[in-house]
Write a structure and sequence with these properties.
The structure holds three protein chains of three kinds. By secondary structure, chain A is an all-alpha fold. Chain A has a single domain, classed as Orthogonal Bundle (MetI-like fold), CATH 1.10.3720.10. In chain A, helix 1 packs across helix 17, helix 6 packs across helix 8 and helix 21 runs antiparallel to helix 22. Chain A is globular and about 80 Å long. Chain C is about 25% helix and about 35% strand. In chain C, the strands form four sheets. In chain C, strands 7-8-9-3-10-11 form a six-stranded mixed beta sheet, sandwiched between helices. Chain C has a five-stranded antiparallel beta sheet with strand order 2-1-4-5-6, with helices on one face. In chain C, helix 2 crosses helix 3, helix 2 packs parallel to helix 4 and helix 3 crosses helix 4. Chain C is globular, with a radius of gyration of 24 Å. Classes of the chains: A mainly alpha, B alpha/beta, C alpha+beta. Chains in contact: A-B, A-C. Chains A and B meet through helix 12, helix 19 and helix 24 of A and helix 3, strand 4, helix 4, strand 8 and helix 7 of B.
Chain lengths: ~550, ~350, ~350
């Protein structure tokens, strides 16, 4: 007689979902609460409730317009870069494609923060290195002023271009080559095939990438912070930042702005997912497609130039500019005035915020990734493989943090956790919890794609063989998910180490981390010191990532 | 019948206690160069000190390192936050009953007064406070004290601006020829608030309206201002800190400081101990050291600011403070009341709103 | 009489508005191999998975080995891992991250058998499927046919007494399929395991089954031995789906002079002697005639003989297929390759009444 009680599975699954759901919704609840606060902002809970903060947003329309402007330009540029690179690297036969694909990951390890600092050096009006060269050639004015919305969009696009690249090249790679081949057999030339066959087939992938990138641009902070504020150009995220720094801090306005942005991003992201679901292009059928490359003949060299050009412009040029600055005594790009020194590195390495910050960031990266990945693995299985009721809603909630700008979420997290009797504020535990919460979508997305590729009959067979749930998970499911889990670990590790928006609010004297330290240094130290700190950070991240990659290769036995 | 003498006795006791509270302890201990009322052994046992301030990190940490050199058992922990953010963080932490900071430097006296009203400061009368003028301390004494005097006026880059066209007075700085090439500080800067206040008093309430069409760039830190001045992105810096000028001059950068005949602005840096500090004895010890001659001299050398103490030399390369005509607000309460108005106006001038 | 190993009664499986299985029932005796045969979407796989516990029915009951594993009225649903059945999946479901040995040993290890016994059993079943040399090979390096054998070995390793097959041969090429079906049947007979087999390939079903259950649209069309299904189809669907059939329209005119047949008047006026597969009922107007049962040329003594003309001839290697014109339209006829007729020539078409089944 079978006892109809609760199996372990029925307890664990809802518990995990409930826990993660709470972590996500609790800070958002606080944000909503604070956005309705029209009384004294320093009193908690709010004394008065009202919708004034939202009505007042109408006065800030120019900030909203700025945000939209920058996001649009940046999205167009990023998708253009991504599409071009994806097409060149997956569909043509230029030499060294594989190496270039690997190099395309580099901008992701640098942060837009560092990129913005570097581009300030390169294209600052009048005295940027590039502008100086421009003038010395006798050409009038500046080639470009980076302290402008276009400058912000340019820097954002350079970094987000890699994300667009990954999404679009995935779509291009999963296209059945026989679709193009049949077009060629029927007599259509390369260009016509590209325009009439290839383009429409990858269109859903490109569209989804565009919408996703747009959502990210709306919530981006670092570039607008470095390049916008000096030019008196504010977007929603930097306006929120300013609002929280003024005194009395205008938390209500900040929260209202943040939630509005959240609303827009949520709609945009939902749209992206709908497009992806409806786009009927055969992706994961189990057949591995080898896309047929197009022979581009003499165009090979210009295309190679473009492909390398992106890497140079996105990675090498900024790093070089920072390197130059970090060795200067005082940051000037007026060449005859340069004086060089090693003092900046000495100072940077001695600074109290550098050493502990690095240790903290690396520790957090490793811990959050190591704890997060198994939990997200179980979550992914619950959402995509089980029949637990409410799993659709769970997926939606877990993906929320993607739509909340990090800065805004950080604010919510601050209030949410500072008011709990648990003494977690000001410690690394809070940062760890916060990172885990905001990286849930990233991890889920990565692992989900692997989960969906696993044939369900592999798990069913284990059950038929008599394996109870945990045994099945342990011996069949988790080992099969391993490549995806390793990938998720790496992504979460890198994201933790470069995190800015959440950390900048939750950081305390005993829990300093790298990116806010660089921001602080940029705000209050000379740019040459910030350059030195930024380079030390980049070098450390590169080294850590390289180490993790080689370890990961050994674990999965796969060359990536 | 018996109550009256008792009442009288209590009244005398209270008066005495009140008087005692306003005076440093009976037997201040003489350390090397300064006196302290703190329990040194207990401070060393506490083992750490957390300082929240707006000073540039590298310089501030160099100053704190000097304290650490005298008391190696006390580990220093410095957190640099922009002025408004610092106060907001402090208040948020208080509201959540979390106390992480021992010492707070709040940049704007308005904040210090506000914090004092909220009962955020610990009252501790350091024996070193006797050397500070009454105007340079909180009233009653012991809540906050001026730890530095920040002098500011105008600076320009001589490679971009010739001596003839350079501004010589405050009004010169409002010339339209500086459009888009002039920098100021943001509205959360205490220094900027003081500058705004005193120049309004001097030149009238509509003085600053002439600045708005120049589209000034606003920065959180004087380091950024001078960075841009030296690198040529700006020509003129308004509300330019003398300390920034001195620091740049020491590095050999091209920068000239202007001493307007009507006077230079002087703003205080209020330093105080947070009431529920996690390391109270160490905090008291630090205050004594910081406000003393060795502490203040160190501060002056690292940060290029002036000390409110007359027995401390000026910063390296700087003129003696007596050579300046200082413009300081005389009524701090009135000053505090203008804060909200200042923020509104300044945000409009700098394009935030 | 021994109790049936598998008993399914009144099984209904619904997905939202769609009904995949609409009230079916059958029993399978110990040692029988019964096949669920039907086109895609007929509900055969759903039924199999319901027996395995991988699908939850909406109503009905399922008993395995004399124990109720699913019953709607009793609100009982035993989870898959406790039912003690075994299954071979269409995709084989070989775990790529394990070796062949580990794959096959899985069910034994779950049952916590001692290592020596595990090894012994794995060896035994690998021998049975002739994969004994592959024990240490990583499973990801097997061909389709090899994977299939390992899947079978894994399924029988822990000696289940019920074995479920979900179209195990459909991913193999034709020749391999033909070979493997013989091997599977041999294995099943030798081990005497009660088996429920699902396929859409009617040739396969006829070849290996003890009984066949033909399903369509969630319902059972007919249950019977392969011969019964082939020779006495009960409906148009069965006649058409199992093997090929010529369907002749017409009307029943009554019993014939010899009482075992009926007179059927086809379109075009021909009178044929036919048999009924079950009790005759009103409205029957179609006769099924299998192509291989039709003779061309002179066949003495046939009770049905009609003149016709060869319209088309196609050589299929093992047989020749003719399209023959006759008064009621066209007939498909299959003849051994020795019987060669030219296109356009006149022939006599003859067939026995027992092969003309009234539907």
């Amino acid at each position: 007689m079978i006892v109809r009680g609760l199996s372990l599975r029925q307890i664990v699954m809802p518990l995990v979902v409930l826990l993660c759901g709470t972590l996500v919704l609790y800070p958002i609840g606080f944000l909503i609460n604070e956005s309705l606060n029209v009384g004294d902002p320093s009193v908690f809970p709010p004394e008065e409730y009202g919708l004034d903060n939202y009505w007042n947003l109408i006065d800030d329309y120019h900030i909203l317009a700025n945000t939209a402007l920058v996001a649009c330009i940046a999205t167009v540029l990023a998708v253009l870069f991504g599409f071009l690179q994806a097409w060149i690297l997956t569909r043509t036969n230029i030499p060294g494609r594989q190496r270039l694909e690997r190099l395309m990951e580099l901008p992701y390890y640098m942060t837009p923060l560092i990129g913005a600092l570097a581009w300030g050096v390169l294209l600052g009006p009048k005295t940027g290195l590039v502008n100086q060269v421009w003038r010395s050639l006798g050409l009038p004015g500046d080639l470009f002023n980076i302290y402008s919305p276009y400058g912000i969009a340019w820097v954002m696009a350079l970094f987000e271009g890699t994300v667009a690249f990954v999404m679009i090249s995935a779509a291009m790679k999963s296209m059945d080559p026989s679709l193009e081949e049949s077009s060629r057999v029927l007599g259509a030339g390369k260009l016509r095939t590209a325009l009439r066959i290839t383009l429409p087939l990858v269109a859903p992938g490109v569209l989804s990438a565009t919408i996703f990138v747009f959502a990210e641009m709306l919530g981006s902070f670092a570039a607008a912070f470095v390049l916008g504020i000096p030019g008196r150009f504010y977007v929603v995220t930097t306006a929120i930042w300013q609002a929280t720094l003024s005194f009395p801090p205008d938390y209500g306005r900040a929260a209202a702005m943040g939630l509005s942005l959240f609303g827009v991003m949520l709609i945009t992201l939902t749209l992206a997912r709908l497009v992806l679901r409806h786009g009927s292009y055969a992706t994961i059928t189990g057949k591995a497609f080898r896309p047929r490359e197009m022979d581009v003949g003499r165009m090979r060299w210009p295309l190679l130039g473009i492909a390398w050009g992106y890497i140079i412009v996105a990675v090498i040029l900024p790093l070089a500019a920072l390197l130059l600055t970090s060795f200067e005594k005082f940051a000037t790009v007026i060449l005859p005035q340069m004086k060089f020194t090693l003092a900046n590195y000495e100072t940077a390495l001695q600074m109290g915020s550098v050493g502990p910050a690095f240790v903290n960031s690396l520790t957090l990266g490793i811990s959050v990734a190591t704890v997060g990945v198994p939990v997200i693995g179980v979550l992914a299985w619950i959402i995509y493989r089980s029949r637990m009721p409410g799993r659709g809603a769970a997926e939606y909630v877990i993906m929320f943090p993607q739509a909340v700008p990090r800065l805004v979420f950080g604010l919510g997290l601050l209030w949410a956790w500072i008011n709990l009797p648990i003494p977690i504020y000001g410690t690394l535990w809070l940062l760890g919890l916060a990172y885990f919460t905001v990286f849930l979508p990233l991890g889920l997305r990565t692992i989900a794609s692997v989960v969906l590729q696993v044939d369900p009959s592999l798990e069913e067979c284990a059950r038929v063989c008599g394996a109870p749930w945990i045994y099945q998970m342990r011996t069949v499911t988790l080992p099969l998910l391993r490549p995806g889990m390793v990938a998720a670990w790496l992504l979460i590790f890198i994201a933790s180490v470069r995190e800015l928006g959440v950390s900048i609010f939750l950081m305390g004297p005993n829990s300093k981390v790298i990116a806010p330290a660089i921001v602080n240094s940029w705000l209050s130290s000379s740019s040459e010191l910030s350059a030195a700190m930024a380079l030390i950070q980049t070098a450390t991240v590169f080294a850590a990532v390289a180490l993790m990659f080689s370890l990961a290769r050994r674990v999965t036995g796969v060359t990536q | 019948m018996r109550r009256r003498p008792f009442a009288a006795l209590s009244a005398i006791l209270v008066a005495l206690l009140g008087a005692v509270a306003a005076v440093a302890c009976d037997n201040p201990r003489q350390m090397d160069g300064f006196k302290t009322c703190a329990d040194v052994a207990k401070a060393e046992q506490e083992g750490a000190l957390v300082v929240y301030s707006t000073d540039p990190e590298a310089a501030a940490e160099a100053e704190l390192a000097k304290f650490h050199a005298v008391f190696p058992k006390i580990r220093m922990n410095y957190l640099r936050i922009q002025a408004g953010g610092l106060y907001a963080k402090l208040l948020a932490e208080r509201q959540g009953n979390v106390y992480l900071a021992d010492i707070a430097q709040l940049s704007d006296v308005s904040f210090a007064l506000d914090f004092q009203k909220r009962g955020g400061y610990m009252q501790y009368v350091s024996p070193e406070m006797a050397a500070h003028k009454t105007e340079y301390k909180s009233s009653p004494e012991g809540y906050w004290t001026w730890g530095a005097l920040v002098v500011a006026a105008i600076a320009y880059n001589p490679t971009l601006v010739s001596a003839d066209e350079a501004p010589r007075t405050w009004r010169d700085a409002m010339d339209p020829k500086w459009t888009d090439t002039i920098s100021v500080k943001v509205s959360i800067s205490g220094l900027q608030h003081v500058t705004w206040y005193v120049l309004r008093q001097l030149y009238g309430n509509d003085f600053w309206s002439k600045l708005a069409p120049l589209k000034p760039h606003a920065f959180d830190s004087y380091v950024q201002q001078f960075d841009r001045l030296v690198s040529g992105q700006d020509k003129v810096a308004l509300t330019a800190q003398y300390s920034g000028y001195l620091a740049m001059k020491a590095k050999g950068a091209p920068v000239v400081f202007v001493y307007p005949p009507d006077g230079v602005v002087a703003a205080p840096q209020p330093w105080g101990i947070v009431k529920e500090a996690p390391h109270p004895e160490a905090a008291r010890l630090f205050m004594d050291w910081f406000l003393s001659v060795p502490g203040q001299s160190g501060n002056v050398r690292e940060l290029f600011t002036y000390s409110p103490r007359p027995d401390v030399p000026p910063p390296p390369g700087g003129a003696s403070v007596t050579e300046f005509k200082l413009l300081i607000p005389n009524d701090w309460q009135a000053f505090e009341r203008t804060h909200a108005q200042f923020v509104r106006e300044w945000d409009k001038i700098t394009g935030l709103r | 009489m021994t109790r049936p190993r598998i008993e399914v009664s009144d099984l209904v499986v619904r997905y939202g508005d769609a009904t995949a299985v609409d009230g079916i029932g059958f029993d399978i005796a110990p040692g029988e191999l019964v096949t669920l045969l039907g086109p895609s979407g007929c509900g055969k796989t759903t039924t199999l998975r319901a027996v395995a516990g991988l699908e939850t029915p909406s109503s009905g009951s399922i008993r395995l080995n004399d124990e109720t594993v699913y019953s709607a009225p009793e609100r009982r649903n035993v989870p898959t891992e406790k039912r003690g059945v075994s299954m071979v999946f269409q995709s084989y479901a070989i775990w790529p991250h394990m070796t062949v040995f580990e794959n096959v040993a899985y069910g034994l290890r779950v049952r916590k058998l001692p290592q020596a016994e595990v090894r012994q059993n794995v060896q035994r079943v690998l021998d049975l499927v002739q994969m004994q040399d592959f024990s240490e090979r990583p499973a990801s390096k097997l061909s389709g046919g090899q994977q299939q054998r390992v899947a079978v070995a894994r399924a029988i390793a822990f000696s289940p007494n019920v074995l479920l097959f979900d179209e195990p041969l459909s991913n193999l090429d034709a020749k391999l399929r033909a070979e493997m079906r013989v091997e599977l049947r041999e294995l099943q007979r030798r081990l005497d395991i009660t088996s429920l087999y699902v396929t859409h390939d009617q040739e396969e079903a006829l070849a290996i089954s003890d009984r066949v259950i033909v399903m369509n649209g969630g319902k059972i069309e007919q249950i019977g031995t392969p011969e019964e299904i082939y020779n006495r189809p009960r409906s148009r669907f069965v006649a058409d789906f199992v093997g090929s059939a010529n369907l002749i329209q017409g009307e029943v005119r009554g019993p014939s002079s010899s009482n075992d047949t009926l007179i059927f008047e086809a379109e075009g006026g021909m009178r044929l002697e036919v048999v009924a597969s079950s009790a005759s009922r009103d409205g029957q107007n179609t006769v099924a005639l299998r192509p291989s049962y039709i003779h061309l040329g002179h066949a003495a003594g046939s009770r049905n003989a009609v003149a016709g003309r060869i319209h088309r001839r196609m050589f299929h290697g093992d047989f020749i297929q003719y399209v023959v014109d006759w008064p009621a339209g066209q007939l498909i006829v299959r003849r051994p390759p020795t019987e060669l007729f030219d296109e356009g020539s006149e022939v006599t078409i003859s067939f026995e009444p027992v092969h003309c089944v009234l539907l």
